[in-house]
Amino acid sequence: MPLYREQGVVLRTHKLGEADRIVTMLARERGLLRAVAKGVRRTSSKFGARLEPFMVADVQCFEGRSLDTITQAETLGAYGPSISADYDRYRAGSVIVETAERLAEGDPSRRLYELLVGALRTLAAARIPPDLVRDGYLLRALSIAGWTPGFVDCVRCGAPGPHTAVVVQLGGVVCEDCRTPGSPRLDPGGIGLLGSLLSGDWESALAASDRERGQAAGIAAAYTQWHLERGLRSFSAPRR
Which phi and psi angles does 98 have, rounded to 5°? Predict the structure, then answer.
């Protein structure tokens, strides 16, 4: 069987048999990768902790007929313990990796892989609020996937902004002539925050108020689930 090495982010795991695990990863070159890690649930396992969610690892695998088998794993980014230790970071991280898995169902994308690693690194560092890290990842990941939202000019007719009404189905802000009944209207700061998150301007994002962050979070969640065409389980996790 062919042997290969890959770098990947562990998205989720589930038990297989008495001691094994199936590990779902976003790999740098191969995209979505599912492989069996044998014996990792035993206390004597040498690399079980390296294959937990939110970890970045260099893995050696054998190709199999249905599932590959992980034979070695070396840690490249130990983000799991820090993210899992805080409930808000864990909730944000869960949304991020679930979205990554949905987006990875298409062709492999190194840009999506690098964005995911950067988001988890930032989340684990705990210098930026988890909701901002999450929403910034969602908007930029969707942009890489081909669904770049617009938060300046009207996304329907191109009328110059600023505009404050948002129609998720159209892809961003709209002018008064293009606004549909029931579409939400955000504070100017909420629109500005969405633009900052999309561009990765953390300095401006950190200056946003709680109200603006709440408005931006609602749009980022709605925009993500609209394009993924189904809800994300992680969004429904209870708050504390």
Answer: -65, -40
